Fold this sequence. Notes:
By secondary structure, the chain is an all-beta fold. The protein contains one helix and 29 strands. Strands 8, 9, 10, 11 and 12 form a five-stranded antiparallel β-sheet that branches. Strands 4-5-7-6 form a four-stranded mixed β-sheet, with no helix packed on it. The chain has a four-stranded antiparallel β-sheet with strand order 13-14-15-16, with no helix packed on it. Strand 1 and strand 2 form a beta hairpin. The longest helix has 6 residues, at 273-278. The protein is globular, with a radius of gyration of 18 Å.
Amino acid sequence: MDQTGRMLVGTLDGLNVLENNRFTEILNKNSSIWDYMYIFSIKCMNASIFVCCTHKNPYGKLSESMYENDKIFSFRSSSFCITKDNKFIAGGWENDIYIYNYPPLILDKKSLINVFGDSNINNKIHCIYEDTGNNLWFGTDAGLCKITNGKKTFFYENEILESTIKCITEDRQNKIWFAGDKGISSYRLSDSLITNYSYFDEYDMSASNTLSVDSYNRLWVGTMNGLYILDKDSIRVLNTQTGLPTKEILSLFYDNEKIQCGSDHGGLSSVDINEFDKK
Length: 279
């Protein structure tokens, strides 16, 4: 959401704004700076919108544009995070992350870090997350990495966490949640306890893409097989049989008691949580 409450939606064709149930295109692929425009992540801070996408520009070079009163910064990256101490961390496709000082966005040339090992390899950084304990988490094709005060921790013997991790979030009880190809997993900050969920009850949690936590501390999990709602020891499922236009959920966004669900072929769906709970 931008500063006026408009929803920003990234697609294969560019950046759009949803207002009054209508989409307006803000940025599109018909530009010299893109061969195609795949948007990986969008974050809004005050009157600035940061768009992480495919880009011809090198790392650290931002393209700036305006939409009404919003300033839009687009840049080449597969993932990014703005930390509490104003560090701007961007991930790439070759096992690399870059750290910038923000604002302004200035790259320290010594700030290149390889997540696994000390060299560039084919390893996409899917997500970067800073938790309430100031740990940095990196979800990659090669698995999960935690960096605390410069020290890296890996999870090589954990079936879920050593595989591709696509999304990371934190719930209201200081559990960090991870979604990936082999299922979902939680990490409790208080004692570092890890719990894996390849299945939840009889439901297969593999091919998990995205996570969101609502105001009741329920975990919403978007997978290639439907949308799962985990509430303590119970689970509910939304799919094409229960109202969604597709079972393949690629992105989730929670705001104002609504869960917005993005998909590849089914467009954007909105779940009103209050109405959902009544029924």
